[in-house]
Design brief:
Vanadium-containing Chloroperoxidase, domain 1, mainly alpha, 6% strand
Length: 277
């Protein structure tokens, strides 16, 4: 019962914070047809998914340098995983259990699906294309990230901390959830969705809030003994980078478009054509 109340509370909090101020925080888009759950969205989703998967083929020197830095940080955390996990478990309190037990639901699939559905429905009802667009781009980022992370979980088969096995214990190609520790699904999901929201936002307040919720959700997974520190780091990076890439694809699609406008008054009758490059 408490678990359901926590999920509902998280959903209400996220919905209130984002929907109550939607008129001011998100960029609008002229091509409203592209912001619908329709065949065009599915086409864009397919192209974006393929683009994300194939993107390493087009990496430049700076991308490999960034990859090296990420892997280096991940390896450092990997070496410290056992110590971090022991410290986190030794310093748990009833207050921290309540807080992190609450915020961890920000990465739950059901909570995210409900939040995005509410965001999209709000955009449709209020005819605010920016809300619909943000919901659909978040959905793309979340699902694309989920495919990547789920595949990695299966291949690596890392034992979760609560199994009692060491941080160096791997069971490749296991289908048991206890061996789905690397990378963290909650962390990747939270960062995929909230990075997208931050990318679509024009408010520093929303950016800080989005990344704070994602970061706290990721930290909760170590606190709750569900993941190692390196799991949440790599998961967060994957979700963040996938979201950034999908938002970049969307901007590229909208960089070249034609919009048609009509102006009709008693004194003026005109048709305007705007071409953006």
């Amino acid at each position: 019962m408490k678990n359901h109340l926590n999920k509902a509370s998280v959903l209400f909090l996220l919905g209130f914070l984002f929907l109550s101020s939607h008129q001011n925080i998100l960029y609008a888009d002229d091509n409203s047809n592209a912001n619908k759950l329709n065949k065009l969205f599915l086409k864009n989703f397919k192209n974006d998914f393929v683009g994300v998967i194939a993107s390493p083929a087009g990496w430049e020197k700076k991308d490999f340098i960034n990859l090296s830095a990420i892997l280096g940080a991940g390896l450092i955390l990997y070496a410290l995983d056992q110590e971090i996990q022991e410290w986190a478990q030794n310093n748990r309190t009833s207050g921290s259990d309540d807080f992190f037990g609450f915020i961890t639901h920000a990465g739950d699939g059901g909570v995210i699906a409900a939040m995005l559905a509410a965001l999209y429905a709000s955009g449709e009802i209020s005819r605010n294309d920016s809300l619909s667009k943000t919901a659909l781009l978040s959905l793309e980022s979340w699902l694309t990230t989920a495919v990547i992370v789920s595949s990695m979980k299966y291949v690596f088969g890392r034992a979760r901390p609560y199994t009692g096995e060491s941080s160096h214990s791997f069971h490749p190609f296991s289908t048991t959830s206890s061996y789905f520790s690397f990378p963290s699904g909650h962390s990747s999901a939270a960062f995929a969705v909230f990075t997208t929201i931050a990318e679509q936002s024009k408010s520093v307040y929303v950016d800080v809030l989005a990344y704070s919720v994602a970061s706290l959700c990721a930290l909760s997974r170590v606190h709750n003994n569900k993941h190692w520190a390196s799991d949440i780091f790599i998961g967060a990076v994957i979700g963040h980078l996938v979201a950034k890439k999908i938002c970049a694809f969307d901007r590229a699609r909208n960089s070249k478009k034609v919009s048609l406008g009509f102006q009709y008054t008693r004194h003026t009758k005109a048709i305007t054509v705007n071409i953006s490059f």
